[in-house]
Amino acid sequence: MKKVSTVTKIILSVSLLTFSCAKNKATSIEPTPILPIAETTLQATLPFPMGAAVNVSLLKSNSNYRNLVVKEFNSITAENAMKFASVHPSKDVYNFADADYLVDFAKANGKRVHGHTLNWYKSLPDWVTNFQGTTADWENLLKTHIQAVVSYFKGKVVSWDVVNEAIDEDGTMRNSIWLQKLGADYIGRAFQYAHEADPDALLFYNDYGHEFGPTKRIAILNLVTSLKNKGIPIDGIGLQMHTRVTQSDANLASAINLAAATGLKIHISELDIALNPDNNQALTYTSALGEQQAVKYKFIVKTYNAIPKSQQFGITTWNVTDADSWIPSNYNRPDWPLPFDAQYQRKAAYQGILDGVK
């Protein structure tokens, strides 16, 4: 056997050591992971809460709908699940099943819940519309309903539309069953009853038509200012903003800015922008229409974002996608009023909302 010299041994040892170190070094370096780029969403981008009114049946049955709500919104309103007829179907019976589902869904997914609505002239069960009793009996009916519902959700629902749509188109008090039985002061008492049941809940007066023109807008502002001046516990105004692509920017700006001038919190509470207000049965969605809608969404968001931050309660769209909107069925026409299309995809309106806070 050929002898290996001492020098050769040393060279071999050093070579093996170098190879071993190089090998260890190479295998100890992990590849740098390619991190996913954080996807832009409404709730992550907007500097105020972005909400949607949601349909509980769709939340339960449609995973695309549910996933979109989870992904895009951090505030939710019950579209129908907390209205009088839903939660109080009989005089001595309350049914909170759907409302509970919504509240549990919100809690599990880190979302705020806005309650809608404690008092409205619509969505009343037959036992209320057929109720026979004295003024005191009607007062007890109003108080009992409000306090039972608000108490039940105390600590779970952060805010309520206490009274909804009490002003008519001409600026007079709406001739509702509540006005007929209890007089105009029922509004203030409704707020007091809600506040007694949950002193921490934020309480809103909610109505549509602020952007139609001065007649109804002034009447609404006079009402909320009068409540505030009387010391009634009112915290904010809900501007429903069921509007249309043809509405003037001047009217939209007046609606938002004059409401904010009251000093109350402002909630754009039921936003959608109709593209077919003329009920054209042959109209189809085009990219040009979508861009017009995006410009209008941008203007509303931009105007809202300019009011004092302390007054920005948030913006809520009325439902989630065009497929779920109330407008096509209610007006029996094609329309596309929301930021997502019927296939749950973002429309130009979505970018319009994001552009409103740039």
UniProtKB/TrEMBL annotation:
Segments forming domain GH10:
43-356
UniProt keyword Transport present = no
Q: Which domain of life is it from?
A: Bacteria
EC number in record? 3.2.1.8
Q: Which Pfam families match?
A: Glyco_hydro_10 (PF00331)
- State the UniProt keywords alphabetically: Carbohydrate metabolism, Glycosidase, Hydrolase, Polysaccharide degradation, Signal, Xylan degradation
Please name the catalytic residues of this protein: 270 (nucleophile)
Which first-to-last residue range defines the signal peptide?
A: 1-22
Ranges in a coiled coil: none
Catalyzed reactions per annotation = Endohydrolysis of (1->4)-beta-D-xylosidic linkages in xylans
Similarity-based family: Belongs to the glycosyl hydrolase 10 (cellulase F) family.
Q: What is the name of this protein? A: Beta-xylanase
For this protein's source organism, the top of the classification is: Bacteria, Pseudomonadati, Bacteroidota, Sphingobacteriia, Sphingobacteriales
